[in-house]
Design a protein that fits this description.
Layout: E1 4-11, H1 12-19, E2 22-23, E3 31-35, E4 45-49, H2 52-57, E5 64-68, E6 80-83, H3 86-95, E7 110-111, E8 116-117, E9 122-123, E10 128-129, E11 134-135, E12 140-141, E13 146-147, E14 151-153, E15 158-159, E16 164-167, E17 172-174, E18 180-182, E19 189-191, E20 196-197, E21 202-204, E22 211-213, E23 218-219, E24 224-225, E25 230-231, E26 236-237, E27 242-243, E28 248-249, E29 254-255, E30 260-261, E31 266-267, E32 272-273, E33 278-279, E34 288-290, E35 295-296, H4 297-310
Parallel strand pairs: 3-4, 4-5, 5-6, 7-10, 8-11, 9-12, 10-13, 11-14, 12-15, 13-16, 14-19, 15-20, 16-21, 19-22, 20-23, 21-24, 22-25, 23-26, 24-27, 25-28, 26-29, 27-30, 28-31, 29-32, 30-33, 32-34
Antiparallel strand pairs: 1-3, 2-6, 17-18, 34-35
Length: 311
């Protein structure tokens, strides 16, 4: 059986009172015992409706419906909890049901002398924290993650399993004889409060100053952040994206999966980068770009349409 049971039954009215939104008068006293997907949901199941496809399927659902307000006119009244932020309400409800790591802050992790780890930080099995690292209060470092010296993690940071923070960046210089020599990366990494770094992500140390992830940044799995990059507050980055050295990312930028950003590029605040884009030049604030080389998304779509018509 799919779905997640609530710790105790809740009326729809009590959920809306806690998490916001409006309930159909006829549904106020309906009791919810589980949160479940629309397929196979029955009475007592709370079903999130957050997409047009879900709204089209709602008529045949026997559950109680948590409906995004923008979709409310597509869902028949009677069993609805209509929320202006339905996905947020759902996340808030499920957060209390998510499993937590063991509370022992040291466990089988390896912490070198000279590392500064807050007493309530949680280190997963096999995590490595090297001398000179600083890990803030209520921060979690996942199994087998590595935190190098020179890395400072703020409060409530989440580091996924296998992530590597503060390794020397990929900087090589050529000598007069053509030989390659590594440029030492001595600037470390600064991760501000409430950042999440996904599993197998890498954040390289800066050269002279730190690589910086500002407050509230969210990195998905397998994201690479090169040396001297700065990622602005509340930016969100999907999986397998890579930022080359010295990229500057503004506040609130949204980056799709498998995006590549060339070195020294600036992404302006609240820009949006479509999945699989190749960004080789600056993106102005608020702009949405797509393609390779990345251009205004509308222009890219017109170009693709012309190309496909020729085929």
């Amino acid at each position: 059986m799919t779905g997640v049971a609530l710790p105790e039954p809740r009326t729809l009215a009590s959920l809306a009172a806690e998490l916001g939104g409006d309930v159909d008068a006829a549904a106020a006293d309906l009791v919810v015992t589980r949160v479940a997907p629309i397929a196979g949901a029955g009475p007592g199941d709370l079903v999130p409706i957050t997409s047009s496809r879900g709204a089209a399927q709602a008529a045949g659902c026997a559950g109680v419906l948590l409906v995004e307000r923008s979709l409310a006119d597509r869902v028949a009244a009677g069993r609805r909890w209509v929320s202006p932020h339905a996905s947020w309400a759902l996340a808030s409800l499920l957060d209390g049901l998510a499993p937590r790591w063991a509370s022992a802050p040291r466990g089988p992790a390896h912490v070198e002398p000279g590392a500064d780890v807050a007493p309530d930080a949680v280190l997963g099995p096999g995590a490595v924290v090297l001398a000179g690292a600083v890990i803030g209060a209520a921060t979690s470092v996942g199994p087998n993650a590595v935190v190098y010296g020179g890395v400072t993690l703020g409060r409530r940071v989440v580091v996924g399993a296998g992530a590597v923070l503060g390794r020397p960046g990929f900087g090589w210089v050529a000598g007069p004889d053509g030989a390659r020599r590594r440029m030492p990366q001595l600037g470390g990494v600064v991760v501000e409060d409430d950042v999440e770094i996904g599993p197998l992500a890498t954040v390289d140390a800066g050269t002279l100053g730190p690589t910086v992830l500002r407050r509230g940044v969210k990195l998905d799995a397998q994201v690479h952040v090169g040396h001297n990059v700065e990622i602005g507050e509340a930016t969100i980055v999907a999986a397998q994206t890579g930022f080359a050295g010295s990229v500057r990312v503004g506040q609130g930028v949204q980056v799709g999966g498998q995006v590549g950003v060339a070195d020294h590029v600036t992404l302006g605040a609240f820009a949006r980068i479509a999945a699989k884009s190749g960004v080789i030049g600056d993106v102005p604030a608020g702009r949405t770009v797509a393609g390779y080389p990345a251009v205004d998304r509308a222009r890219w779509l017109r170009g693709m349409a012309r190309l496909l018509r020729r085929g």
